[in-house]
Amino acid sequence: MSPLTAEEWFMRRSLSVPLAGLLLALVAAPALAQPPTTPVPGPRDPNQPPASAPNGPQPLAHAVGDAGTGLTIIRLGPQGVPTNTILPGLGDQLPKQSVTELGLGLASAQVNTEAFLGTERVVTQANPFGFAVAGRSPQTPGTLVQTAIPDNPQPTNGGLPIPETPLAKVGLLNGSVHARWDEKVGPCVEPLASARTSLAGLQVLSALPAEVPLPVKTSLVSIPDTFEASSKVRLVDLPGSKNKAVESTSTMRAVSVELAGGVKIDVVSPPTLTALATGDEKTSKITYTAPVLKVSQNGKELGTLDAAHPVLDVPLLLDLVVLKLQIAGLNEKKASFSGSGFSGFQLGATARMLDVQVLPTDKLKLPNLPAALAQISLGEQIARAAAPQGGVVCGTAQPPTTNTPQQPGGPAAPPKQKAPPLAYTNAAYQSLPLFWTGTGLLLVGVVLVAALPVRGRSRERAPEVSEP
């Protein structure tokens, strides 16, 4: 469940989960798997038409993209258990999973024009929380969801239920989701897919075990002000062309973060992660605006976390208890693809606004230890995008009437066939004439039997038996 590097993300292509759920599932999915599509169910008889065929003008646009953002990811025993896979030997090449993970305020927006099911083409979710044990995460209740098709002119807004746990105490959590689709031009609509979660008040690890020697009895991480995560997928203008590019964006908004020991982090500039796919490697790009965080302790400035200074250790107790602060953690991957309905270019990246590690173990130099006792990630981000060569075409076309090859993007429509008046039997007779023929022969047989003389039947009366 830990965010993978771009290479590791790419390796797990065959193990990816559908674009359908928690950010915890998103960050474990491969960054550059082939643009996913629902397998199209085919008929048992190859001569039969497919299960579904285009009807009326069809959009020409082909676009795949998703963005996911999590307000907070809590990891106990990060990199503490091996990663299990169905492929022999692959688990040794992947990073270890956390013993336990809890995600709060998860927002995901996903677009996949190649999905066979209409409800999978645009999916937006705002999850109140998600959890995983040794990398396995079930679906959680209380999620706001919007899917398209059909179109949703208005977003869905509402509060998200959050249970209070020893790991975190949460204030008011709200969510908003919006999924759009145009019947004529498909994803060429604004807005297309967006999801947002906002949190007012958060305390993380407010009930630490007694073995953790913190100098103060308080929460490890506290966010007193509004903390917001936003994920968005849209089509943007492609310079020098009438076509569009796919843009997936994850953004964070925060004011300040307070840590145990009087440590305060002021968010001078929040992070933004964007994946832009134009269909061409030269113009497709990952854009990451690293956060700028000012760190102070009891009013004394300790330093600034930014792209040039991504790591800062803050001692809390005679250098024995240390908080390791780290930003960015950017991992990205780019690759061309072909053979999935259209050919083009895809790219993806992951990043985190701030990692807070309690009792990091990197200086102990002992094998098989977790990276830290606990790790809290604030602002976990993911963005992926894929576009066909030449960009996304916004237009419509009539489905072909013959079984001829179609332009990239989908199978050709089956030829129109004149349906027989009724079903045929295995003997190649029409069922209705066969029924009436059999009925007529039966009536003829009844008449013949009634008209023929009765033969071989005894006409003698049985002897009467007299009474005694």
Structure summary, number of beta strands: 21
| Rg, nearest Å | 32 Å
Overall mean pLDDT? 74
Helix content: under 10%
Number of helices: 3
- Intertermini distance: 103 Å
**Globular, elongated, flat, extended or rod-shaped: what is the shape?**
elongated
Class based on secondary structure composition and strand pairing: mainly beta
One letter per element, helices H and strands E, the order comes to HHEEEEEEEEEEEEEEEEEEEEEH
As residue ranges, the low-confidence spans are 1-36, 209-215, 402-437, 456-468
Q: Which percent band covers the strand fraction?
A: 35-45%
How does the major sheet shape up? 11 strands, antiparallel
Task: Provide a descriptive summary of the structure in words.
- The protein is built from three helices and 21 strands.
- Strands 6, 7, 8, 9, 10, 11, 12, 13, 14, 15 and 16 form an eleven-stranded antiparallel beta sheet that branches. Strands 5-4-3-2-20-19-18-17 form an eight-stranded antiparallel beta sheet. A two-stranded antiparallel ribbon has the order 1-21.
- It is mainly beta and 468 residues long.
- 7% of the residues lie in helices and 41% in strands.
- The longest helix is centred in the C-terminal third of the chain and has 21 residues, at 431-451.
- Strand 6 and strand 7 (168-179) form a beta hairpin.
How are the SSEs ordered, and which strands pair?
Blueprint: H1 6-11, H2 23-26, E1 58-59, E2 64-76, E3 100-112, E4 122-133, E5 144-148, E6 156-159, E7 168-179, E8 193-204, E9 221-237, E10 244-253, E11 256-259, E12 263-269, E13 272-277, E14 285-289, E15 292-297, E16 300-305, E17 311-317, E18 321-337, E19 344-360, E20 372-388, E21 396-397, H3 431-451
Antiparallel strand pairs: 1-21, 2-3, 2-20, 3-4, 4-5, 6-7, 7-8, 8-9, 9-10, 9-11, 10-13, 11-12, 12-15, 13-14, 15-16, 17-18, 18-19, 19-20
